[in-house]
Amino acid sequence: MRIALIYPNIGRRGDSLFMDGACMEPLGLAVIAGLSPGHIDIDLIDDRIDEIKYGEPYDLVAITVQIYTARRSYEIADEFRRRGVRVALGGIHASLLPEEAAEHADTLVIGDAELSWPFLIADLQAGQLKERYSCEHAKRPQNGTLPNRSLFKGKKYLPLSLVQFSRGCTNQCSFCASSAFFKAKQYIREPGEVVREIQAQNRKQIFFVDDNIVADKEAAKELFRALIPLKVRWVSQASMDMLQDSELMDLMMKSGCLGHVIGFESIEADGIESMNKSTNERYIGDRYEYAIKELRHYGLQTWAAFTVGHDADTVESIRETCMFAMDNKFAFAAFNILNPYPATPFYSQLEADGRLLYDGKWWLHPEYRFNYASFKPMNMSAAELTETAFWCRREFNSPSSIIKRAFEPQTNMKSLTRLATYAAYNPLFRREVFNKQGITFGYEG
After folding, report:
1. How many CA atoms lie within 13 A of 282 on its CB side?
2. What angle do CA 47, 15, 25 make, to 5 degrees?
3. Which H, E and C letters describe 310-334, residue by residue?
4. What global pTM score does this model have?
5. Would you state the torsion angle of the CA atoms of residues 268, 246, 141, 162, taken in this order, to the nearest 10 degrees?
6. Beta carbons of 7 and 64 less than 8 angstroms apart
7. What are the distances in angstroms from CA 343 to CA 92, 136, 391?
8. In angstroms, rounded to a whole number, what is the distance separating the alpha carbons of residues 389 and 385?
9. At 64, phi and psi to the nearest 5?
10. How far apart, in whole angstroms, are the C-alpha atoms of residue 233 and residue 247?
11. pLDDT tens digits for 225-262?
12. Is residue 62 within a helix (H) or strand (E), and if so which, with residue range?
């Protein structure tokens, strides 16, 4: 049998598909390949860098669907089905909106794939493919399976390996699709399995793709202890409350951590309270002054993630957030417009208030563009929110800002490795600011 695993593009810029110059390995598809029997031929097609050959004689095409790639995912699925090829759709978006996804698939994989993929393969071989394969979240993600990283060979991905220690997060932020999907729970792998996976590949630069690697602090400590002998350098996503545990932080640094994506979200207490970001509440009183001092003490290069468009936000307060990020010389920062993800409390509230734009399905609407506001903000127009968020990204990633922020002695200039990381990735992210703004979802008109 022959199966294609497809990672879809976001969409197109102008008349051609957007070609992403900063692609990371699609870890989830490598895990699916690792779960597949050895006698099945697996092709990885990354729509961001590969051409899709619709005429290939596949027995099944499996597509992972994210909200930003939903429109493109459905286009690909529909074309294969038109040619008589069976299509399976999975991923968080397909799980949150199965009725929508089912219109473009022969079968759906709902929830994590570890427990259902082997049954799907057996049914496919027997000619008895079911319409849905649903399972609970895997108590131990990957279930002892190593990703099949041979699929990445020859493809132009960033030179770091993606690994996952846990899935989900115990926080209940009102805008978070992951929290809705995992129901504010976290599922953790055995540290020994993670070590074996790292040892099975040849890179020392690791990105842990966890939603919040420190949500379970004792489990995180166990992982960090196991990482110390490996002498790797790694980054992940983490919540600010990790600073409450000095043992956790010491082990983190000894294990090779360079920094984290941290959800600062807002520099206003009202904003933090409105989104139910409990991990930030004890640090927002002084506008994160103590937290930033501690992050610098440990030498962490911080990617400060902000969400803009909260009901308390104004054009002026959003611009102030950008200046706050520049003044604190964060290694990186994101200024993400709040997007109402389906099945989240934020989406439900905007729907009840009649504030959703693009017919409430911005991810499918032909007029929606990437990084645009998809709802009516309280204190500005949607266009003003879009323009102000882009202004923040443009200013923070300007050449003068990149040079100024480099001279932070406790983080960006702490070592040659950290300075090299800063120097390599800041120009890359600057290009992304302009390349991705306003991309059309999907390829067809």
Report:
1. 8
2. 20
3. CCCCCHHHHHHHHHHHHHCCCCEEE
4. 0.94
5. 80
6. yes
7. 11, 18, 30
8. 6
9. -90, 125
10. 19
11. 999 999 999 999 999 999 999 999 999 999 999 999 99
12. strand 60-64
Question: In this predicted model, what pLDDT tens digit does every residue of 294-330 receive, in sequence order?
Answer: 999 999 999 999 999 999 999 999 999 999 999 999 9
- Domain span including residue 394: 159-441
Count CB atoms within 10 A of the CB of residue 290. Answer: 13
What's the CA gap between 332 and 302, in Å, rounded? 7
Q: Examine the domain organization and report whether 90 and 208 are in the same domain.
A: no
Which two three-digit tokens encode residue 439? 């991309």
Same domain, 106 and 174: no
Residue 340 gets the label, from left (phi > 0), alpha (psi -120 to 50) or beta, of beta
DSSP string, 367-436: T-BTT---B--SSS-HHHHHHHHHHHHHHHTSHHHHHHHH--TTTTTSSHHHHHHHHHHHHHHHHHHHHH
Q: Is 191 left (phi over 0), alpha (psi -120 to 50) or beta?
A: alpha
Give per-residue pLDDT as tens, 344-402.
999 999 999 999 999 999 999 999 999 999 999 999 999 999 999 999 999 999 999 99
In angstroms, the CA 339 to CA 373 distance is: 7
Could you tell me whether strands 440-441 and 11-13 are parallel, antiparallel, or unpaired per DSSP bridges? antiparallel
Express each pLDDT in 116-127 by its tens digit: 999 999 999 999
Crossing angle, helix 217-227 and helix 191-199, to 10 degrees? 30
Please count the structural domains in the chain.
2
Residue entry with tokens 């040659």: 416
**Residues facing residue 88 across a β-bridge:** 62, 107
**How far is the first Cα of the chain from the last one, in angstroms, to the nearest whole number?**
34
Alpha carbon of residue 34 to chain centroid: 21
Q: Looking at this protein, which amino acid is placed at residue 407? A: F
CATH code of residue 355: 3.80.30.20
The separation between CA 66 and the C-alpha centre of its own chain, rounded to angstroms, equals 9
Sequence letter at residue 108 = L
Helices 315-327 and 399-406 meet at what angle, rounded to 10?
Answer: 40
Tokens of 295: 């992050």
In this structure, the number of other CB atoms found within 10 A of the CB of residue 42 comes to: 21
Q: Is residue 305 part of a domain?
A: yes
- How are strands ordered across the β-sheet holding 205-208? 161-163, 205-208, 233-238, 257-265, 301-308, 332-337
Asked if residue 336 lies in contact with residue 367, where contact means CB atoms within 8 angstroms, the answer is no
Instruction: Give the pair of three-digit tokens for residue 159.
Output: 């030179």
The three-state secondary structure class of 41 is: strand
Supply the angle between the helices 27-35 and 117-126 in degrees, to the nearest 10.
Answer: 60
DSSP 33: H
| 217/129 same-domain check | no
Within-domain flag for 144: no
**Which amino acid makes up residue 264?**
F
DSSP element (H, E) containing 235: strand 233-238
